[in-house]
Amino acid sequence: MAAQDSDLEKTEPASDRRLEQAREEGDVARSRELAACASLLIGGLLLWAMGASLQSSLSLLLKDALAFPRALAFDTPLLLEHGRALVGRALWALLPFGAVLLLVVVAAPLLVGGWLFSSKAFLPKFDRLDPVAGIGRLFSLNALGELGKALAKTLLVGIAAFYVMRSQSEAVFALAMTPAGAGDGALGHLLFLAFASMAAVLALIAVIDVPWQRWQHAKKLMMTREEVRQEHKEQEGNPEIKGRIRAQQREMSRRRMMAEVPKADVVVTNPTHYAVALKYSEDRHAAPVVVAKGADEIAATIRAIAAEHRVPLLEAPPLARALYRHTEPGDAIPERLYAAVAQVLAYVFQLRAGSEAAPPSAIEVPADMDIPGAVA
């Protein structure tokens, strides 16, 4: 019972296939806090780099918007045209800032999880329409965690803002009594402190949130041992089925090999343990080719088929063993066995010509090509 319970517990890390399926469904680790922090930092840098030109453009635009001919106020078409022109100028002035910020907003989430486009993410999920399931998600641990994170972020930002205001309270009160234009430097300093404190808080939250989101995502995709076994079976196939397929393939290969034995020129035997059938066609092969080989029962079958179709049988134990060890059906014989096989074929061709020839008695084979420890 304990073993069964352990098989149902998610104790195994997600496999590569599980991760791939999750990506196909658009399920990857994402950090909203990292995106928010990156957007704030880049936005602040853009304002620092483009602030002067942006301020000049918008100031001139505001001046033109508030100062226009009196007659324009009584001509609706011209007033609308003037408004459209002002809006176009405002959009044009804000375009570089907005374009870069939009690029950052789109690219920042890719820092965790990478680029991903999944069509399945656009498919409707009707289970989302279930109110009971929706209430369950609303009060789930994940939702409570997100709520706690939002409250913590608000609290930290509030604390940072409080300390900035407290440390700069005299400057804030002095700024209220400073003539317009004279306090730009002090105002900029206060804005910089507020921005730096907020950026520091969000950066701290992002540093904590990124590994947390990765851990949460990995935990969500964890698998039970049964799921791992099932996936392995699906990928590798059922061992019993694969065994039957391999057996069928071996049987088919054996039948094709036996069908080639009647076409052989000679079968070299051990005489009982090994049998190798050779075929040589001068116009098709540069060297004799092994068309069938086998040991024990298969060797006996090859000898029986050869005898039935009057294919010459020649006992040459060392040669039979060397051919069996170093060739497969369809292979040409090794060059080091050319001389030995040539003696066999010369004997066979003499028999075909009707000459009375004695089988070669001493066929030499390199010792290192023989099967170690083999007996006739």
How do the strands line up in the largest sheet? 5-4-3-6
Note poorly predicted spans: 1-5
Number of strands: 6
What is the end-to-end distance?
A: 58 Å
Radius of gyration: 43 Å
Q: What is the helix/strand order?
A: HEHHHHHHHEHHEEEHEHH
Please indicate the percent range of residues in DSSP E strands (runs of 2 or more).
5-15%
Number of helices: 13
Largest sheet: 4 strands, mixed
Class from secondary-structure proportions: alpha+beta
Output mean pLDDT: 78
- Into which percent range does the helicity of residues fall? 55-70%
Overall 3D form: elongated
Explain this structure.
The chain is α+β, with helices and mostly antiparallel strands and 376 residues long. Helices cover 62% and strands 7% of the residues. It has 13 helices and 6 strands. The protein has helices at residues 2-8, 16-24, 32-66, 76-107, 131-138, 141-167, 169-176, 184-220, 225-236, 239-260, 297-308, 317-326, 338-352, and strands at residues 10-12, 223-224, 266-269, 274-279, 289-295, 313-315. A 4-stranded mixed β-sheet has the order 5-4-3-6, sandwiched between helices. A hairpin with a 4-residue loop joins strand 3 and strand 4. Helix 3 runs antiparallel to helix 4, helix 3 packs antiparallel against helix 8 and helix 6 (141-167) packs antiparallel against helix 8. The relative contact order is 0.08. Residues 1-5 have low confidence and may be disordered.
Give a brief outline of the structure.
The chain contains 13 helices and 6 strands. By secondary structure, it is α+β, with helices and mostly antiparallel strands.
